[in-house]
Amino acid sequence: AYGKALAANGQFEAALDAVRRAQTPEYPDWRLVSAEAAILDQLNQKDDARQLYRKALELKPNEPSVLSNLGMSYVLEGDLRTAETYMRSAAQQQNADSRVRQNLALVVGLQGRFDEAEKIASQELSPEQAQA
User: I want to staple 125 with a disulfide (CB 3.0 to 4.6 A). Which of 5, 33, 63, 129 is the partner?
Assistant: First the structure.
């Protein structure tokens, strides 16, 4: 939690240090691995971030939050097709939450498929919110 708070405050190096110190190498926690990946994404270390997202997925296969964050990593780079692949996989998981589905709607909309994006978004939102 401390590492995430530091990252939210823009203190990425301190956040990275906190997350790494909290990790137990013998029994890695997928949440900490994913948090470290997200921080590396913020530091524009995409390759290292994606490697860690994949490690988190090895520890917790098909975890929607990790798949979604991996997809967002590709969004930040402008690779919307790859991003959509990960986002769709995330959204199809039984335990996917609203944020995951909204991220899918975002990446579909960024590709100009507005009707499809609105349909995805409207599953969670009022019609007015989905059109916004």
Answer: 129
DSSP assignments along the chain, one per residue: -HHHHHHHTT-HHHHHHHHHHH--TTS--HHHHHHHHHHHHHTT-HHHHHHHHHHHHHHSTT-HHHHHHHHHHHHHHT-HHHHHHHHHHHHTSTT--HHHHHHHHHHHHHTT-HHHHHHHHHTTS-HHHHH-
**What CATH number is given to the structural domain containing 104?**
1.25.40.10
Residue 132 sits in which domain range? Answer: 62-132
Give per-residue pLDDT as tens, 2-12. 888 888 888 89
Q: How many structural domains does the chain have?
A: 2
- pTM, 2 dp: 0.88
For 91, how many CA atoms within 13 A lie in the half-sphere containing its CB? 22
